[in-house]
Amino acid sequence: MVARRSLGRPFGRLWAAYAVSAYGSGLGFGALPLTAVLVVHASPAQVSALSAVGPAMGALIAVPLAPWVERRRKRPVMIGMDLCRFAAMASVPVAHAVGRLGFAQLLVVSAVVAAARIAFNAAGGAFLKTLLPPRDLLVANARLESTNWSSIAVGPPLGGAATGAFGPVTTVLADAVSYLLSALGIASVRAREEPARAAGAGPAGTGGALDGWRHLLAHPGLRALWLNNLLVAGLIMATEPLLAVFLLRDLGFPPWQYGLAFAAPCLGGLVGSRLARRVVARYGRHRVLRTAGTLRAVWLIGLALTPPGTAGLVTVIAVELAIIAHMSLYTPVLATYRLEQTPQHRVARTLTAWSIGQQTAVAVLTALAGLLADATSPRTALTAAGLLILATPLLLPRRESLAPGAEGATAPAGTGAG
């Protein structure tokens, strides 16, 4: 039996803070839309706007935040973004308690949380790169990935039970408190962080908000992986609201089966992420990215074939399990490569550009899938998404694009806050 590899106390505290926040978000999964429906009595159009417009506004806010994050030490930025999310989410139960909660506030909270999440993740990736040597980045990303999937497996069922017993505002409060605890945990990390390089002190354009996109598009390997990810993430996420209608309305699944169909497969995320380091060591990064990147895309078409009854429940669980297992193997390898191939002074802007692109793709493809489902049926829209995603492996990079010598290769360790 292989002993768990220690990454040091600073990473352990960072990981613990991440876990608290992840489980809090899992517990509060879907709490804002539920609050809109059950407390504010929002219309279906308002609920859809909350799910799409709020994150889109957050993505716009995050664009000018990117160079601001790049110019600062990353740990204080992470703490600040956690406190920002705590304040935004905590405002919901406070407003509810005094009878002043309205839809406009929920929309603002959704946008603020989305923008803060993008900035936090950008600063977090940059901080991780300075906290650990390059050889430990894959192990660290795999552990964070496994925590993410375990929180999704456990959090929503518990959150659903809490919502049924105490109302959705309770889970909003739990999510808010988790951000406060995360901020305290990150504040306890004792690690020396070099001052960030001032904007304009490095290569031309490093102070620009669009520099992250320039780096992604100029780097052959990252460009291919980013474009692939835009479509894969967008198409997979576009199926979620379709499945809710398809399974609950068309096939008559009871709510507990619907919850089980999404919670149980998340255990596959624990398996895939734990195997990432060993699989890369045995087969190489390029083969893992190509193979796992392909296999995470080929199963989605199976959702369109879901029959009613127990067989349908088994089908959904099997398809989601296959997608998540390969996605959790692929994601930490991708995250590690992305950090390695991005210079220290561009990490925050590159990760911000990546997140904004993905969030925009999810919003656009979800809207298009919804329009197709309205014009035809959810099963037809699921079929279209499943067929389109089969073409995405063609965008995965060739071996020469992943060469370490490609533009944007890793800057020497300890050269800044990237």
Structural description of this entry:
- This protein has 418 residues and is an all-alpha fold.
- The protein is built from 15 helices and no strands.
- It has helices at residues 9-27, 31-38, 44-70, 74-97, 103-131, 137-166, 168-187, 211-218, 220-250, 255-263, 267-283, 285-295, 309-340, 347-375, 378-388.
- Helix 1 (9-27) packs parallel to helix 6 (137-166), helix 2 (31-38) runs antiparallel to helix 3 and helix 11 packs across helix 13 (309-340).
- The chain is globular.
- Mean pLDDT is 86; it is low at 198-207 and 405-418.
Which helices and strands, and how do they pair?
Elements: H1 9-27, H2 31-38, H3 44-70, H4 74-97, H5 103-131, H6 137-166, H7 168-187, H8 211-218, H9 220-250, H10 255-263, H11 267-283, H12 285-295, H13 309-340, H14 347-375, H15 378-388
Question: Secondary-structure element sequence?
Answer: HHHHHHHHHHHHHHH
User: Alpha-carbon distance between the termini?
Assistant: 35 Å
Biggest sheet details: none
Q: What is the number of helices?
A: 15
Strand percent estimate? under 5%
Unreliable runs: 198-207, 405-418
Mean pLDDT across residues: 86
Determine Rg (CA atoms, Å).
Answer: 21 Å
The number of distinct β-strands equals: 0
Task: Please describe the structure with a list of short key phrases separated by commas or semicolons.
15 helices; single chain; 418 residues; 73% helix
